Amino acid sequence: MLAGMTADEIAATAPRLTRKGQATRDRIVTAASELMFLRGVAGTSTDDVQAAAGVSTSQVYHYFRDKRTLVRAVIAHQTDAVLDAQQPLLGRLDSLDALRAWRDFLVDMQRQRDCLGGCPIGSIGSELAESDPDARADVAVGFGRWESAIRQGLQAMHDRGELRADADPEQLALGTLAALQGGLLLTQIRRDTVALEAALDSMIDHIEALTS
Amino acid sequence: MLAGMTADEIAATAPRLTRKGQATRDRIVTAASELMFLRGVAGTSTDDVQAAAGVSTSQVYHYFRDKRTLVRAVIAHQTDAVLDAQQPLLGRLDSLDALRAWRDFLVDMQRQRDCLGGCPIGSIGSELAESDPDARADVAVGFGRWESAIRQGLQAMHDRGELRADADPEQLALGTLAALQGGLLLTQIRRDTVALEAALDSMIDHIEALTS
DNA sequence: AAAGTTCTGGAGTGTCAACTCCAAAAGTTT
DNA sequence: AAACTTTTGGAGTTGACACTCCAGAACTTT
């Protein structure tokens, strides 16, 4: 019933919550997001979530039909959190300076995390892509929003003539997001931001070379 | 006891196997690799592996101390398989033509898989990075071999003067591996090779721009 | 061929995780 | 304040999964 529905369709189905109920639901999603970011979905039991959120068994199942539904709420939450955390930089990636500032921000963020955990969206996507088609679709939408923000900045540069006419903002945006995702993965595995820096610097240098 | 040891140290510890024993062990690792590639480590039970390999419970635990040890064998197997599959291209990435042929090969491979499953090494690394330090270290070694192969090709171009002196083969190799990993992830999530193509094309175009 | 080792079958065990259920407390509406 | 809905606590159920154990078969070595 929830399977196959988009995240928005699910939201429309949700029963109304009292203020207190909303607060409890939020605590559950936040706790689950943090746990699943570090331990993965399979590595996080509903018991773990209950303990971290300070709620009882029945509360989790009052607000979420099952664990898969909770996971989809976590994906929605993390998508917003990741995009919000990059603002206002992400909304204005329309110059080399802006791109470099964004790069520094991302590298700093991973450094502050001691390179623990990769991308909150990418990790979940990787874990669930072949076992939960709805989760995969939600993650795809999240990546779409991310790529779109990058593309808009590059498109603005293109429109202004700062990027050569034969440069393709769409390809560059997708390539940049891929480099970022791969850089985050390598950084997590190597426990070292060098890979993230190399990936983003390579892409930004490439974009710079395309400024006529 | 096995924890903290490198994969090579473990291999040195292993008891000798008869030909038949080796064959059984191989069947288990191969079956586990295929299952874990598609369903993940957590999504693959030892029962699943037994059924797929056609062995009994005790056989799995005769050849592997526990599931974690089996997973490390899977990582070793997949690392070899992934690098071997890219040969001989990967061993000679020392020209733009070679890089483009390699790119086509990788894109084709994902297309033939219908974009199912990401990178056999990267997926496992992402799943286990924060829960199994030994597995994380094994994956890091695997990525190291991969990056090294790419770097050697670029270094050869650099030595021959085909790459500008200020180009950094190490950064380009890491960036290329990151772009590949991110491209594979996006391709898996989007069910579409466009992202992999965009990522690799961007990096290779960048390398081309660095040929003086 | 005897002795020793490796390999195999399969039943059994303990734990843990997802999910259910019911009754009571808290909150809202009329 | 009565009727109704939402929220909460926690005990209980069910199934799955990692791992153990033991006895016998197959194979190797002497």
What does this structure look like?
- The structure is a homodimer.
- Chain A is mainly alpha-helical and about 210 residues long.
- The first copy, chain A, is built from 10 helices and no strands.
- Chain A has helices at about 5-15, 20-40, 45-55, 55-65, 65-85, 95-110, 120-130, 135-160, 170-190, 195-210.
- In chain A, helix 2 packs across helix 5 and helix 8 (about 135-160) crosses helix 9 (about 170-190).
- The longest helix of chain A is centred in the last third of the chain and has 27 residues, at about 135-160.
- Chain A is elongated, with a radius of gyration of 19 Å.
- The termini of chain A are far apart.
- Chain A binds a DNA duplex (30 and 30 nucleotides) through helix 2 and helix 4.
In short:
Chain A is an all-alpha fold and 212 residues long. Helix content of chain A is 72%, strand content 0%.
Give the overall pLDDT of chain A as a whole number.
95
How far from one another are the termini of chain A?
Answer: 53 Å
What about the largest sheet of chain A?
A: none
CA radius of gyration of chain A: 19 Å
Q: What structural category arises from helix and sheet content of chain A?
A: mainly alpha
What amount of the residues of chain A lies in strands?
under 5%
Secondary-structure element pattern of chain A, one letter each: HHHHHHHHHH
Instruction: Report the count of strand segments of chain A.
Output: 0
Tell me the overall shape of chain A.
Answer: elongated
Oligomer: homodimer
Biggest interface and residues each: A-B, 49 and 49 residues
Ranges of chain A with pLDDT <50 over ≥5 residues? none
Instruction: Output the number of helix runs of chain A.
Output: 10
Helix content of chain A: over 70%
